[in-house]
Design a protein that fits this description.
Elements: H1 3-20, H2 25-34, H3 40-55, H4 57-66, H5 79-93, H6 99-113, H7 118-131
Length: 132
């Protein structure tokens, strides 16, 4: 399983958490089992992303807030875009993934799962964060 495919699984899980507004370890285990993820590096990545976002959630959300247009709030961002941004910010800030890779992957997810404005929005917020 390549990293883009694993990242897409991570997006689906984080999106589900954003919808449900709760997270526990059992949900993660069930998700991994239901999606037949057996590759140990994929499981390690998923655990890293899920736990990393959860433990750094406030800082990640603050970075998003600080890089929105004045009239925008976190509540106004679609759950799809929010999940994509959280993963990308986590990868850039905590996993030290090159920002160009993280932004490109985030934009690709936005194209696939978001509305037509999602890729530009995601790219704009992430570019603003990187430029700080």
């Amino acid at each position: 399983m390549n990293r883009s495919a694993v990242r897409e699984l991570a997006f689906k899980f984080i999106y589900g958490i954003e919808i449900q507004k709760e997270y526990d370890k059992e949900q993660l285990s069930l998700f991994i089992e239901e999606n037949n993820v057996t590759d140990s590096s994929a499981i390690e990545y998923l655990n890293s992303v899920f736990n990393g976002i959860e433990s750094n959630k406030e800082e990640i959300l603050e970075l998003i807030r600080m890089n929105l247009k004045k009239e925008w709030t976190i509540d106004r961002i679609s759950k799809v875009n929010l999940a994509i941004l959280e993963i990308a910010i986590f990868e850039i800030k905590y996993k030290e993934l090159p920002f160009k890779v993280a932004i490109n992957e985030a934009v690709e997810l936005a194209k696939k799962y978001g509305d037509e404005a999602a890729p530009l929005f995601v790219n704009g917020v992430l570019a603003s964060i990187v430029n700080e």
